[in-house]
Amino acid sequence: MRRVLAILSSVLLMSVSLIPSATATTVAGNSVYNNPVVWQDFADGDIIRVGDAYYYSASTMHYSPGAPILRSYNLVDWEYAGHSVPRLDFGSGAYDLSGGRAYVKGIWASTLNHRPSNNTYYWIGCVEFNRTYVYTASAVDGTWSKRAQIPHCYYDAGLLIDNNDTMYVAYGNGTISVAQLSPDGFGQVRAQQVFQTPSSVGTLEGARFYKRGGYYYIWLTRPANGQYVLRSTSPWGPYEMRRVLLDLPGPISGGGVPHQGGLVQTQNGDWYYMSFVDAYPGGRVPALAPITWTGDWPVLQTVNGGWGVTYPRPNIQTGRTVTPMTGPDTFTTGSLGHRWEWNHNPDASRFSTGNGLRLRTATVTGDLYNARNTLTHRIQGPSSTATIELDYTQMANGDRTGLAMLRDQSAWIGVKRDNGAHRVVMTNGLSMNGSWQTTGTGVEAASATISGGRIWLRVNADIRPGSGRQARFSYSTDGTTFVGLGPAFTLNNAWQFFMGYRFGIFNHATQALGGAVTVRRFDLTTP
């Protein structure tokens, strides 16, 4: 998951046996699917099938709840299904924005698998390079519990549950190791190095661990432009290596090379590879391609020498459908849906749902990056619009609330209350440095006086890969006619923050706690 270089150059690997790419022929009509299959930021994915359902787990860094899970019944259409880590309970107040901050820490590449013998899902992930946590649940959309902390870092872990129910984890960066877990999966029995990446290859990481027939496979990425696979007849090696892809043209114009991710087998025995594509400023988005096997080695099916923009749909017969990943939320239930994640852990005593999303101020600060209870939503690509209906009648003097384009360079549209008066403002110039410390708390670029207690705030975001992409802010006092406010905001497309831009809903105080706002509706729409 960690980048070695911003852009890795192509190299000719003469010492590695190469796997040739086969060519797939696309067909017309609704019998094909398009890549990316999910145009939202879901990086470092692990993918599994349990019965007729497919699950995809991703990294989330400092967002909470963490380790989101998507569900599909055909590998093409996906929905939000759950989170493996209900709260970033990692032994540090920084994850609560208390005594520190955890930007770009937390959940990196991790692993999800299902153990048939006890019908239990396991999530395993290393945090801050020095400890690994194990969470379990009986259903992905059920209650997940932290079960163990293992005093080893299984960096970029891949979990295999062998035919005899033994649990193994492959992990590492450059030096690839395998650990055998205790029978309950909560401790380590044995660990050893099984492979050292040749210097001619560079770095391999992002391990996924599989067994097919009599072979064990460790699926590894060369960030950010290659994919390799190791094969052995024993989990402990010795392993031989082959290259799957390098500098392969991707399916998104302006995006990167598909890499990392994992393999999954359908009910019919077909295999697919779900990778991700670097697509900043939007983040890293999942792409799907078929895999065949030649001489017990996996072969990626390409289209005209690249990862296909379209492929024939998987041969999966199902009548089951999924909930769209866009659309409205009116916050009428007693808990937030799985589409939502907070910036760091929230203060649960300061928000509620059921009659809209009520956000009581939780932090007194002039810095949005320090403010608790900022609720985030991924942006749908290639472009989409987020709109919130906001009741601001209970704001206190000094409060700031609104809708942000949130990343290490940010901007927002919202409401300020000062001296009893309300204004709608567009603010830009929020920024962090490379150590994720605040370097700019924002500059008010435009404003207008408002009254009446209700406003609609809107952001339209173009997150196609590349530089110069922009977001535009507008507001309405009747929910119908929107007025642009402030200049367009140019998005930062550097990869170092890892997570892409998100929409962020916030309410924080600058003078004293006590104020509140209610978000009556959120809507995410596409052109």
Can you walk me through this structure?
The protein has 527 residues and is mainly beta. Helices cover 0% and strands 49% of the residues. It is built from no helices and 41 strands. Strands 26, 28, 29, 31, 36, 37, 38, 39 and 41 form a nine-stranded antiparallel β-sheet that branches. Strands 6-27-30-40-32-33-34-35 form an eight-stranded antiparallel β-sheet, with no helix packed on it. The chain has a five-stranded mixed β-sheet with strand order 1-20-19-18-17, with no helix packed on it. The radius of gyration is 23 Å and the shape is globular. 50% of the residues are buried. The N terminus is likely disordered.
Helices, strands, pairings?
Blueprint: E1 17-18, E2 22-23, E3 32-34, E4 46-50, E5 53-57, E6 63-64, E7 66-72, E8 78-85, E9 111-115, E10 120-127, E11 131-137, E12 145-150, E13 158-161, E14 167-173, E15 175-181, E16 188-196, E17 205-212, E18 215-222, E19 226-232, E20 240-246, E21 259-265, E22 271-278, E23 284-294, E24 297-302, E25 310-312, E26 327-329, E27 341-343, E28 351-352, E29 357-360, E30 375-378, E31 383-391, E32 400-406, E33 409-418, E34 421-432, E35 438-450, E36 454-462, E37 470-476, E38 483-484, E39 489-490, E40 502-508, E41 516-525
Parallel strand pairs: 1-20, 2-24
Antiparallel strand pairs: 3-25, 4-5, 5-7, 6-27, 7-8, 9-10, 10-11, 11-12, 13-14, 14-15, 15-16, 17-18, 18-19, 19-20, 21-22, 22-23, 23-24, 26-41, 27-30, 28-29, 29-41, 30-40, 31-36, 31-41, 32-33, 32-40, 33-34, 34-35, 36-37, 37-38, 37-39
